[in-house]
Amino acid sequence: MNWITNYVRPKINSMLGRREMPENLWIKDPETGEMIFHKDLEENQWVIPSSGHHMKISAKERLKFFFDDGVYEQLENPKAPVDPLKFRDEKRYTDRLREARAKTNLEDAVLNGVGRVEGLELVATVQDFAFMGGSLGMAAGEAIIRGFETAIERRLPLVLFAASGGARMQEGILSLMQLPRTTVAVDRLKEAGLPYIVVLTNPTTGGVTASYAMLGDVHIAEPGALIGFAGPRVIEQTIREKLPDGFQRAEYLKAHGMVDMVVSRLEMKATIARLLKIMLKQPVEPDKDVLALPEPAEERLEA
Fold first, then answer.
1. What is the mean pLDDT of the chain?
2. Structural domain tally of the chain?
3. How far apart are CA 188 and CA 185, in angstroms?
4. Per the domain annotation, does 40 fall within a domain?
5. pLDDT tens digits for 7-57?
6. Burial label, 280 (beta-carbon count in 10 A; 0-12, 13-18, 19+)
7. What is the predicted pLDDT for the residue at 32?
8. Please, which residues have CB within 8 angstroms of residue 4's CB and are 6 or more apart in sequence?
9. Alpha-carbon gap, residue 240 to 128, rounded angstroms
10. Which of 53, 114, 151, 155 has minimal Cβ neighbours within 10 Å of its Cβ?
């Protein structure tokens, strides 16, 4: 059997010109089960056309889609102590970091970029959930603060894309200290009179929602994003009650006043550019659909 599998079958395949099919060519819609060709999905910013489901994307892809022509200056993250607590569970923390860096090609869970969005220069800070769940450790905290400091130095607005499971347990209290440190950075940006917009993506939970992710001038959420401090299952077990449908999802939070807008990723760039121009008192092209007024009652009767 091994001889047939290892020699005969590959020989026949090579003679017939058959090629192995990569496993990731088609991606399944989690909501409908529909299969979508990965190139079509990538061209649509990883938003499934039929259902509108927003797939997770990397920090680099998000910056490429967000900035004009995908061009931006990547800021170097500050150096931070590695494994200050010498933490180990099933694996050493240093091993987990090494695996995450190899997987994402990032130094840590946060990436800063400076570029233009519809001609408006700004700083964008993005958390990558693929890097240890976007968890907030010392290096990530330093990177976020670097983004705010750059915005203050260059007098630019800052847009932050949050995606995180919360504080990084492997760094203990040192991770929790990033919450007040990043909050101070937000206050400094606001004291400088610069706009701060937060985009809440799926998921944004834990200590991130207890600090900088809920301190924006405007809070925008992607459709279907899970947003909250503790997860729904933990809350149900704590209060011993069934939660409402869609609890902690973007649409539910907007209906209850915790989120200002729910905006598709496909419209995010134009929406943020328009908001920032209004906040910076720059000329904005009128939106005919938004500004159109109904006809007076007399004219409608005459018609």
1. 89
2. 2
3. 5
4. yes
5. 556 665 555 554 444 556 888 888 888 899 889 999 999 999 989 999 999
6. middle
7. 84
8. none
9. 33
10. 155
In a shared domain, residues 51 and 78? no
Cα 210 to Cα 22: distance, rounded to the nearest angstrom: 42
Q: Which residues pair with 92 in a beta bridge?
A: 88
70: left (phi over 0), alpha (psi -120 to 50) or beta: left
Q: What is the pLDDT of residue 300?
A: 42
In the predicted model, is pLDDT for residue 204 greater than 60? Answer: yes
Identify the domain containing residue 45 by its residue range: 23-55
69 lies in the same domain as 48: no
**Residue 141 included in any domain:** yes
- pTM of the complete model: 0.85
Tell me the two tokens of residue 128: 């990558």
Q: With beta carbons less than 8 A apart as the criterion, state whether 198 and 220 touch.
A: yes
66 closest CA partner among 110, 109, 108, 126: 126
Do 64 and 235 contact (CB within 8 A), yes or no? Answer: no
